[in-house]
Design brief:
This protein is 31% helix and 20% strand. By secondary structure, the protein is an alpha/beta fold. It folds into 4 domains: 57 residues, Phosphorylase Kinase, domain 1 (2-Layer Sandwich), CATH 3.30.200; 237 residues, 3-Layer(aba) Sandwich (Rossmann fold), CATH 3.40.50.740; 218 residues, Dimethylsulfoxide Reductase, domain 2 (3-Layer(aba) Sandwich), CATH 3.40.228.10; 114 residues, Barwin-like endoglucanases. Bound molecules: iron/sulfur cluster.
Length: 734
C-alpha cells in the first residue's frame, strides 16, 4: 500500500511501559500499517519487533467478537446487552446474599486511564468495597512501595532525557535489550555517539549483557548485599555528598524479620525507627566488599568498580531496573537500597543522574498507580487517608462513609480468597491470571469452583476465560479512544482509529453499563460517544496543583504526550529539584515534598536469604521472565504470525556444563519440577541466554508450557509483589 494513500493516526504502542509513539495507517476503515511516530520524543520514530507488528493480532480468527455465556457447561453466543444484564444481576445478587466484600475486580496495567478510573469509582465509590487490585501488583508494586518509603510520593523523578546526559547506565537485573528495547537502543546510540557505558548487573547472561561494556553476575537474592557493599564503599572512601545528605536526607530502619507471605491471610506492618548516619555506617560494617564477595560471588574488584562509578563526582549515573528488582521477596528494600546509593552521592533529580524504575506495562504508571487500581489506592490518594477519602467522595458525589478505609486483598491474596470461597464473584479485564499468577496450580481450582462466578473481559480466549461463566468481548486499544501513562510520567492520548468487530465494547463502557443496571447510573453520567473525554476531565480534578497537574486533553490530542506535573503549559521533566520543578517550595535547591520535612529517607536494609533455596532434592534456581517477541502471557503476540514463528514456544535455558552433567542435549524434552508442580519443556543450550551454573531460565509467555505452575507464591511483605525470579527446582530428562 503506498504510504501516502493511508490516513495515519497517532497513539501509543499497545505493549510495554516504554510507551513508544506509533502511527497507524488506516485504509477503508481497516488498520493496515504501523510505523514509529517521528514526533515522539520517546522513540523518535523507532519501534521494536512487537511494536511494528502489533495490529496483526486483531485479525486473529479466534477473536472474541460476541459475549459468551456458559449454559449447562457450553458457551452460548449471547447479545452483549443480555450478557451485561446477567453480570449486573449476578453481582447484585452476590452482594445482597454475601455482602459487598464478596465481589472483586482484577484489572490491568494494560487498561486505559478512563477504564481504571471507572473501575475504581465503581468498586470503591458505588459498591463500597476495596476488592480491586490489578496485575501491576505482579510487576510494579515494589517500585511503588520503594518510592513511598524513600520519598513519600510515588512515581519517578527523572525522564527519558536522562539517557542523553548519563555517562553510565547501570542495569540492575534488567534485560533491557529484550524488555525495553527502544530505550536500550537509545543507550546504544549514546554509547556510540559519546562513549556512554552500559554496565549489566544480573544473575544471567542475556542480550543486554552481550551489548554491555561490562557484565557482572551475582548469586540470586544477593543484590541486597552488593547494594549495601556499594554504600559501604561510598562511605569508607569519602565519596558521600555530605552537604546533600545533611540537607536533604534522613536515616531510618524498619523491621527485619518480615516473613515471605506464604501463609493465607498473612499480615505485616513495618515499624520504622529513625537512626543517624553513624548508626547506618555501623550497620554497613557487615557489608565490606571482602565479606560480600563470598556470599554474592561478585569479585571484590567488581564491587569496588561499581562503587567507584557511583562515587565519582564527575560522572553522571542512571540506575535502571524493573522486574529483577521488583519481583523479589525483598523488592521494596532493593528499591530503597538503589535510592540510598543515589542519595548518598547526591546523584538524583538532575539530567543524567537518575535512579530510574522502569515500568513493565503500557499504563502501569498511568492507570494502576496514578488512577490507582490497587486495593489501597484512590485516584491520587490512598483509602487509609481520611482527606483522600473525603476528596474522592466529593468528586464522585458519594457519601464519604461509602469508601472503606482499609485495604482488602492484594492480587495473590485475592485469588487465595477466591479459593477459600470468601470471594464469590470476580471480574477480570485485560489480564490472564491463570497463566500469570505465581503457583498457578494453587489458584485454578478456586476459579473453577461453581460457587465462584467468574466474568472475563478480554480480546482473545485465554486459559482464564476457559473457566469463566461470562466472557465479554473487549475492544482492542485502537478500536476505542483512551489514555496511557508510561514510565517517565508521560500521559498519551489516542482517538479511536477503527471499528472493532461484532459487539466488541470498551471495558470502561461495560463497567458503566453494569453500574447503571445495578442502580448507580447517577454516578456515571457519561455519554457513550464522549465518555473518555468526560471521564478524563473528571479525573484531572484529583490532580489539580503544581505537584501532580495532568495536561488538558486538548494538549494531549495535539502532542505525543505530556509529562506530569504539567504546569503553566510545560511538562516537568525532573522533580524535587527547584531548577526544574515548580512544586519545590521550601527555598532549598532540592525539596522532596512527598515527606513533611522535605527530606528523603536513606533506609537501613539488610540482606536476607530467599524463602526457598536450592538443596539436594531441588538443586537448581529457577528464574522466569520474558522474551522480546512476546508480550506477557502471549495472548496477543502469539496470534501475530511473524512473532509466533520467531518464538513458537517456551524453553528451558541451561548452562552448558549443567546440561552436559545431566546428559541433556539442545532441544531434548526435560521436566522441571518444584514442590508445587511441574512443566515439560525443550532444553535450550547456548542459544539466546546463558544462565550461570546451577540456574535455569524459562520464559512464561506460553500457556501450553505453564511454568507458573512451578513458581512460588512468596511475596515482598511491604509491597505484596510476588517473586517470580527465585525458587528451587529439579530437572529430569523425559
Ligand atoms: Fe512497544 Fe515497548 Fe516495543 Fe516500544 S519498546 S514498540 S512500547 S513494545
Amino acid at each position: 500500500v503506498p504510504e501516502g494513500s493511508l490516513d495515519w493516526k497517532k497513539g501509543p504502542c499497545r505493549f510495554c511501559g516504554v510507551g513508544c509513539g506509533i502511527l497507524v495507517g488506516v485504509e477503508n476503515g481497516k488498520a493496515v500499517a504501523v510505523k514509529g511516530d517521528p514526533n515522539s520524543s520517546v522513540n523518535k520514530g523507532l519501534l521494536c519487533v512487537k511494536g511494528y507488528h502489533q495490529i496483526m493480532c486483531i485479525q486473529a480468527k479466534d477473536r472474541l467478537e460476541h459475549a459468551l455465556v456458559k449454559k449447562n457447561g457450553t458457551y452460548v453466543k449471547t447479545p452483549i446487552n443480555e450478557a451485561l444484564d446477567i453480570v449486573a444481576n449476578k453481582m447484585k445478587e452476590t452482594i445482597e446474599k454475601h455482602g459487598k466484600d464478596s465481589v472483586a475486580m482484577y484489572t490491568s496495567g494494560q487498561s486505559t486511564i478512563p477504564e481504571g478510573y471507572v473501575a475504581s469509582k465503581f468498586m470503591k465509590g458505588a459498591i463500597g468495597t476495596n476488592n480491586l487490585d490489578c496485575n501491576a501488583r505482579l510487576c510494579m508494586a515494589s517500585a511503588v512501595a520503594g518510592f513511598l518509603t524513600t520519598f513519600g510520593a510515588d512515581e519517578p523523578m527523572g525522564c527519558y532525557e536522562d539517557f542523553d546526559y548519563a555517562d553510565y547506565y547501570i542495569t540492575w537485573g534488567n534485560n533491557m535489550a529484550e524488555m525495553h528495547p527502544v530505550l536500550f537502543s537509545r543507550m546504544l546510540e549514546e554509547k556510540n555517539r559519546r562513549g556512554a557505558k552500559i554496565i549489566d548487573f544480573a544473575t544471567r547472561t542475556t542480550r543486554s549483557s552481550m551489548a554491555a561494556d561490562r557484565s557482572i553476575l551475582f548469586e540470586p537474592q544477593t543484590d541486597l548485599a552488593v547494594g549495601n557493599a556499594i554504600c559501604y564503599e561510598i562511605i569508607n572512601n569519602g565519596w558521600v555528598n555530605k552537604s546533600f545528605v545533611e540537607k536533604y536526607c534522613n536515616f531510618s530502619k524498619g523491621l527485619t524479620k518480615m516473613g515471605y507471605g506464604l501463609e493465607d491471610k498473612y499480615k505485616f506492618k513495618d515499624k520504622p525507627t529513625k537512626i543517624n548516619f553513624e548508626d547506618y555506617k555501623a550497620f554497613l560494617e557487615d557489608y565490606s566488599p571482602e565479606k560480600v564477595s563470598k556470599l554474592t560471588k561478585v569479585s571484590v574488584k567488581d564491587i569496588k568498580y561499581l562503587a567507584a562509578i557511583y562515587g565519582d563526582p564527575n560522572k553522571k549515573v542512571m540506575s535502571l531496573w524493573c522486574m529483577g528488582v521488583n519481583q523479589h521477596t525483598r523488592g521494596t528494600w532493593m528499591n530503597n537500597i538503589i535510592y540510598n546509593i543515589h542519595l548518598l552521592t547526591g546523584k538524583i533529580s538532575e539530567p543524567g543522574n537518575s535512579p530510574f524504575s522502569l515500568t513493565g506495562q503500557p499504563s502501569a504508571c498511568g492507570t494502576a498507580r496514578e488512577v490507582g487500581t490497587f486495593t489501597h489506592k484512590l485516584p491520587k490518594g490512598v483509602v487509609m487517608n481520611p482527606k483522600h477519602r473525603a476528596k474522592a467522595a466529593k468528586i464522585w458525589k458519594v457519601p464519604v462513609e461509602k469508601i472503606p478505609s482499609k485495604p482488602t486483598y492484594h492480587a495473590t491474596e485475592m485469588f487465595r480468597a477466591v479459593d477459600r470461597g470468601d470471594i464469590k464473584f470476580i471480574w477480570t479485564q485485560a489480564v490472564n491470571p491463570l497463566v500469570s499468577l505465581p503457583r498457578t496450580s494453587r489458584f485454578r481450582p478456586g476459579m473453577e469452583k461453581e460457587s465462584c462466578f467468574v466474568v472475563v473481559s478480554d480480546v482473545f480466549p485465554t486459559p482464564t476465560s476457559d473457566v469463566a461463566d461470562v466472557i465479554l468481548p473487549a475492544s482492542w486499544h485502537i478500536e476505542k479512544s483512551g489514555l496511557y501513562g508510561n514510565s517517565e510520567r508521560r500521559t498519551q492520548h489516542w482517538d479511536q482509529m477503527v471499528e472493532g468487530p461484532g459487539e466488541t465494547t470498551p471495558d470502561a463502557w461495560m463497567f458503566i453499563e453494569v453500574a447503571k443496571r445495578m442502580g448507580y447510573g447517577d454516578l456515571f453520567p457519561y455519554s457513550k460517544e464522549n465518555h473518555v473525554e468526560e471521564i478524563y476531565n473528571e479525573y484531572r480534578q484529583f490532580h489539580a496543583g503544581k505537584k501532580h497537574e495532568m495536561a488538558p486533553l486538548e494538549v494531549l490530542k495535539k502532542e505525543s504526550g505530556a509529562i506530569w506535573p504539567y504546569v503553566d503549559g510545560k511538562s516537568t521533566q525532573w522533580r524535587f529539584n527547584a531548577k526544574y520543578d515548580p512544586a519545590c517550595s521550601n527555598g532549598e535547591e532540592f525539596h522532596f515534598y512527598g515527606k513533611p520535612d522535605g527530606k528523603a529517607v536513606i533506609w537501613q536494609r539488610p540482606y536476607e536469604p530467599a524463602p526457598e533455596m536450592p538443596d539436594n532434592e531441588y538443586p537448581f534456581w529457577l528464574n522466569t521472565g520474558r522474551v522480546i517477541e512476546h508480550w506477557h502471557t502471549g495472548s496477543m503476540t502469539r496470534r501475530i504470525p511473524v512473532l509466533h514463528k520467531a518464538m513458537p514456544h517456551a524453553y528451558v535455558e541451561f548452562h552448558p556444563d549443567d546440561a552436559a552433567a545431566l546428559g541433556i542435549r539442545n532441544g531434548a524434552k526435560v521436566k522441571v519440577s518444584s514442590r508445587r508442580g511441574s512443566c515439560i519443556l525443550p532444553a535450550s543450550i547456548n542459544e539466546r541466554g546463558l544462565p550461570t551454573k546451577g540456574q535455569i531460565f524459562v520464559p512464561f509467555f506460553d500457556e501450553n508450557m505453564l511454568i507458573n505452575d512451578v513458581t512460588l507464591d512468596a511475596f515482598c511483605p511491604i509491597s505484596k509483589e510476588p517473586d517470580y525470579k527465585k525458587c528451587a527446582v529439579k530437572v529430569e530428562k523425559v
